[in-house]
Design a protein that fits this description.
single chain; 287 residues; alpha/beta; TIM Barrel; eight-stranded parallel beta barrel; two-stranded antiparallel ribbon; 9 helices
Length: 287
């Protein structure tokens, strides 16, 4: 059993699902600040955020992220802030402009191009169907922008090949030693969520890698337990899964984080504080 403390991330809002699917999903900067506070109070040390307009649509406007940044920081002044650069249909410059402006602790970028889809078995059709472009040129541009402001890169790996894509970029020196591996499972177009697949992904990682499991479905909880046993970390939150282990819909991100803390302890792992997470990830506090 790995005894190092477990890093718990809360992904408090995505850009696809709306309040009609789950009323607790935050849209506005104030709502995001309140949800971040609930997650931190429950035990999360990292808050992962996608920008949204007040109507719930996705946003990469720097002004929106500035408002979110302010609302989260005034409630959670020392929390580790993690902003996305993942987007479809935007230029590479638009995808990183808020990172350069706000200098968050962590910024995610995606480690390969892929089909990105949501399929409805009930309706027998795709309700989301697009191509997520992440060429090596795009990835290098993103991580160099992230590095330029002292932000830690988080590499979102949706399949085995994405882990392999890290190798030349590390050899080039553009991937920092403390870059965080995010093993994302359950997106149609990426690797399916299963115990066998998670074990296979972990086997591909460098021996010194700090990594987390992200599962975009209700299987999240059993895979989180496996990630804990394998010495990794995991992410919860309304971006990934609305439901508590008992099947009830969560009323807040805080409820999901609380379940994550209980699960980690059941598996013999204590959850890292914000300060402890910074030490594990070699990430100094940034005012």
């Amino acid at each position: 059993m790995n005894e190092e403390k477990l890093i718990l991330t809360a992904a408090i809002t995505g850009i696809v699902e709306k309040k009609d699917a789950c009323p607790a999903i935050p849209y506005t900067p104030v709502e995001m600040g309140e949800e971040a506070q609930r997650a931190v109070n429950a035990g999360a040390s990292i808050i992962h955020i996608h920008g949204r307009e007040d109507d719930g649509s996705g946003s990469f406007r720097t002004e929106v992220y500035e408002e979110i940044h302010e609302e989260v920081r005034k409630r959670c002044p020392d929390v580790i802030l993690n902003y996305t650069t993942g987007a479809i249909g935007l230029s590479r410059e638009e995808r990183v402009q808020h990172i350069v402006a706000l200098k968050p602790d962590i910024a995610t970028f995606n480690m390969g191009s892929m089909n990105y889809a949501i399929y409805s078995e009930e309706e027998k059709k795709f309700i989301w169907n697009d191509v997520f472009e992440n060429s090596f040129d795009t990835m290098i541009y993103a991580v160099e922008a992230i590095n330029s402001v002292g932000t830690t890169p988080e590499m979102e790996c949706f399949d085995v090949s994405h882990i392999n894509n890290v190798i030349p970029m590390r050899d080039m020196g553009v991937i920092k030693d403390n870059a965080y591996y995010s093993l994302v499972m359950g997106v149609l177009g990426g690797i399916p969520p299963s115990t066998e697949n998670l074990i296979h992904l972990v086997k591909q990682l460098p021996a010194d890698a700090v990594w987390q499991m992200v599962s975009i479905d209700r299987q999240q909880w059993r895979l989180a337990a496996l990630a804990s046993m394998l010495g990794g970390n995991f992410r919860v939150g309304l971006e990934d899964n609305f439901y508590l282990p008992n099947g009830e819909m969560a009323k807040s991100n805080g409820e999901l984080v609380d379940c994550g803390v209980q699960l980690a302890r059941t598996m013999g792992r204590e959850v890292a504080s914000i300060e402890e997470t910074r030490k594990i990830m070699n990430m100094p506090f940034r005012n």
